[in-house]
Amino acid sequence: MADQILSLVNDFRSRNGLNAVRLSDRLTAAAQGHSQNMASQDFYSHISKDGTPFDQRIRAAGYRFSTAAENIAAGFATADSVFNGWSNSPGHRANMLNPNMQEIGVGHVFLSNDLGVEQWNHYWTLKLAAPQ
Which of 7, 62, 83, 127 is the most exposed place for a label (fewest CB within 10 A)? Predict the structure, then answer.
């Protein structure tokens, strides 16, 4: 899934005259961790249940950045569908088209039997950043 999202984001950036971004293992770890937390702890938010905001989760993964952003989504079953959702949301679109971003990380968790209050089955996180 990460390679598909990377390709979609880079095609989108290219069509808008921007440089490509590359995958970061540390951003991916932070993104995957947040998707896993949303799925297993039954919430959907940029703020973790323990109150941790997205930028602290990126730092906790050992990534030093000058700028960073986070897109989340839930319920989308495919990379294409979640990308389309993000690209049609003004804030998420702006994050993906921020010319300062150089790296991304992608997290996706699928719960086939999602019995919580948040029954989305698919939980996505896209971290975008420029290293310091």
Answer: 62
